UniProtKB/TrEMBL annotation:
One of its GO terms (cellular component) is guanyl-nucleotide exchange factor complex. It is found in: Cytoplasm; Membrane. Involved in cytoskeletal rearrangements required for phagocytosis of apoptotic cells and cell motility. Acts in association with DOCK1 and CRK. Was initially proposed to be required in complex with DOCK1 to activate Rac Rho small GTPases. May enhance the guanine nucleotide exchange factor (GEF) activity of DOCK1. This is ELMO domain-containing protein. GO terms for biological process: actin filament organization; apoptotic process; cell motility; phagocytosis. The gene is ELMO1. It comes from the Eukaryota.
Length: 740
């Protein structure tokens, strides 16, 4: 007979004694269990003891997490969190350097546990650590020359303990003094600083900026780009990652007016990080990131890729203001830009006001504006009143005219010499292309929490967006000619150009020249071949008998998809808990029972390599108790998240299960595929329709395959029930030809 589900068999250790095997009754109060354990070793004052996991975490067992104890777990009897916190609080104030160092090391390890952290914080431990950083370390700096390793470790453990304690979100970041910020910034600004100390200091600055607008102002006053550049020029990728994370955090929190820049600005090295847009536009920082990070011989890890992606997004978001600014037809400065486009294209100077009649000048302007491809020939300023792309389109046109003058003049004159219906309108094309590029690069959207999709080529030029536009506008003109398009084909040409650009970007070109080369290979003829190949794989049969056969097969296919979704839920999925600090991932696992009646779930210490058994998942949710499945903005955990978390991608991956009255089980899927699998599976369990994009795709694929099989001429051909066996491996591979 199996033991009751409330009984857990564990081993409990006590220093200097043999471990005990015990059965823990989860219905008993935890204090009663600890008392029983203490009595077994003849220990009094059981209230001064606690149980903790005897693994790498050493987390305390509490009433909240006791259900995580599994059969076969090894626990340890130790001093209670309050006792341990009080002892460490006293030990870290020891006059002995060695004793202090050992105490701070223990504190750094213990602070990862929220139970201990709460007790230590209650003793005003955070204030003690900040005081040690502000003033206490000055005494040790005098000893630094004779005991440098000890000093580095001492400060490193102090800052590590501080970071771990603050990560629990118990104490507000707004409580810290300017002296503390100056001290942390001082560690970052020093040219030769212990790596661990530097890493913790950068992490603290990043958290300060992200969690407090007031601290952002103070940190920005203490750090300059010149002090961060040396950390990017080093070889430690972790330090480089933290450095870029600090830049990203400051940029994200900078007020809108501080993100604008003047290219005539002075010395970048002394520029405060409040002027973020100016810094990011500078060749020096960009080239350092390109040469020391992106083109480094070391492979870029996921966290660095994410920070580079965030930097790319924030840089492009500088364009949002111009993208959302309408042109003012009465603004002479803005109108002068259009005059400049005309002057460069037709090599004409602005005529004086008294030259010719007003009607003659208007007629001449109208003719030239028509050649430039504007929709409104009389007043082209009206073309830029649509947002997006607003004034950004005009900025791109002017950049192209000034920096690629020969190509600009060739395109304008080439099209003005064609018949009206065959000309590619430069003005209209530029406006629509700018809008398309903004959509492609998601200008104005916040960075995603999980994305690593940065493009190296955008770090190779100071004006990468403008150069990207210049390449694409020439591509558009080339494609227009290849398609022999007329004005009625404008939208069709734009669709082809979008396809060309998206296909080239998926190959992640390392430079703008590589992008040009790949776009050159993706001619209109090549796009037609690719599309034809894709169409052949998705052949659509429209005759009536075929459509009737499809309708007959469809319920079978839908049932097959439903079973696949439920089987995937039975296999389970590991979900990540999104916290304020991305680098400290926490995981939990959820799976459906084989009889489809219960959802089993529970927390994990790390991401599993395979399936997690039901026995290891302590929490249960009967499917019969599930009332509804909600997604996106309707999820309670999306309503609670901060502005950074509420981006489009995370919202698209969020779903929640409503059970009982107001209880929710909240999910954030690791990717779109898992999101579709789980929402489909949960809807299937509730007897609702599966409506995800993934279901539609599977339905199309399986229907197409089944239709082709049924329509094959299979007379006298037997289709086996089981697949044929895989042949044995050959005795040797001498027949393999090495092309090299």
């Amino acid at each position: 007979m199996p033991p009751p589900s409330d009984i857990v068999k564990v081993a409990i250790e006590w220093p200097g004694a043999f471990p005990k095997l015990m059965e823990i009754d989860q219905k008993k109060p935890l204090s009663a269990i600890i008392k029983e354990v203490c009595e077994g070793w003849s220990l009094g004052n059981h209230e001064n003891f606690a149980l903790q996991n005897a693994d790498s975490t050493n987390f305390y067992i509490t009433e909240k997490n006791r259900n995580d104890i599994k059969n076969g777990s090894i626990l340890r009897l130790t001093t209670s969190p309050s006792q341990t916190a009080a002892q460490l609080h006293e030990r870290i104030q020891s006059s002995s350097m060695d004793a202090k160092l050992e105490a701070l090391k223990d504190l750094a390890n213990s602070s990862r546990d929220v139970t201990f952290a709460q007790e230590f914080i209650n003793l005003d431990g955070i204030s003690l650590l900040t005081q040690m950083v502000e003033s206490g370390t000055e005494r040790y700096q005098k000893l630094q020359k004779i005991m440098k390793p000890c000093f580095g470790d001492l400060l490193s453990f102090t800052l590590t303990a501080f970071v771990e304690l603050m990560d629990h979100g118990i104490v507000s970041w707004d409580t810290f003094s300017v002296a503390f910020i100056k001290k942390i910034a001082g560690y970052v600004n020093k040219s030769a600083m212990d790596t661990a100390v530097l890493q913790r200091s950068l992490a603290i600055l990043e958290s300060m900026v992200l969690n407090s607008q007031d601290l952002y102002q103070k940190v920005a006053q203490e750090i300059t780009i010149g002090q961060l550049i040396p950390h990017l020029q080093g070889t430690d990728q972790d330090i480089q990652t933290y450095t870029i994370a600090v830049i990203n955090a400051l940029f994200l929190k900078a007020p809108e007016d501080k993100r604008q820049f003047d290219e005539s600005s002075v010395n970048i090295l002394d520029c405060p990080l409040t002027e973020m847009a100016h810094i990011l536009a500078q060749k020096q920082l960009r080239s350092i990131i390109l040469s020391n990070v992106i083109r480094s011989p070391k492979p870029i890890n996921d966290e660095m890729a994410h920070q580079l992606y965030v930097l790319q997004v924030l840089t492009f978001n500088l364009l949002e203001d111009r993208m959302m600014t309408k042109m003012d037809p009465q603004d002479q400065a803005q109108r002068d830009i259009i005059f400049e486009l005309r002057r460069i294209a037709f090599d004409v100077e602005c005529e004086p006001n008294n030259s010719g009649s007003i009607e003659k000048r208007k007629s001449m302007y109208t003719r030239d504006y028509k050649k430039l491809g504007f929709i409104n020939h009389v007043n082209p300023a009206m073309d830029f009143t649509q947002i997006p792309p607003g004034m950004l389109a005009l900025d791109n046109m002017l950049y192209f005219a000034r920096h690629h003058q020969d190509a600009y003049i060739r395109i304008v004159l080439e099209n003005s010499s064609r018949e009206d219906k065959h000309e590619c309108p430069f003005g209209r094309s530029s406006i629509e292309l700018t809008k398309m590029l903004c959509e492609t690069l998601k200008v104005g959207e916040l960075p995603s929490e999980n994305c690593h999709d940065f493009h190296p080529m955008f770090f190779t030029h100071d004006r990468s967006f403008e150069e990207f536009f210049c390449i694409c506008i020439q591509l558009l003109n080339k494609t227009w000619k290849e398609m022999r398009a007329t004005s009625e084909d404008f939208n069709k040409v734009m669709q082809v150009v979008r396809d060309q650009i998206m296909r080239a970007l998926t190959q992640k070109p390392n430079s703008l020249d590589q992008l040009k080369s790949r776009l050159q290979n993706l001619s209109y003829t090549e796009i037609l071949k690719i599309r034809q190949s894709e169409r052949m794989n998705q052949e659509d049969f429209q005759s009536r008998p075929i459509l009737e056969l499809r309708e007959k097969i469809q319920p079978e296919i839908m049932e097959l998809i439903k079973q696949q979704r439920l089987n995937r839920l039975c296999d389970g999925t590991c979900f990540r808990k999104i916290s304020s600090r991305r680098r400290q991932d926490k995981f939990w696992y959820c799976r459906l029972s084989p009889n489809h009646k219960v959802l089993h779930y529970g927390d994990l210490e790390e991401s599993p390599l395979g399936e997690v058994s039901h026995d290891l998942l302590q929490e249960k949710l009967p499917v019969a108790d599930i009332k509804a499945v909600v997604t996106g903005k309707d999820c309670p955990h999306m309503k609670e998240k901060g502005a950074l978390k509420q981006n489009k991608e995370v919202l698209e991956l969020a779903f929640s299960v409503l059970y009982e009255s107001d209880e929710y089980l909240n999910f954030i899927a690791p990717d779109k595929h898992e999101y579709c699998v789980w929402t489909d599976g949960l809807n299937a369990l509730l007897g609702k329709e599966m409506t995800s994009d993934f279901t539609k795709s599977d339905m199309d694929t399986l229907l197409s395959m089944e239709m082709k099989l049924r329509l094959l001429d299979l007379e006298n051909i037997q289709i086996p029930e089981a697949p044929p066996p895989i042949p044995k491996e050959p005795s040797n591979y001498d027949f393999v030809y090495d092309c090299n």
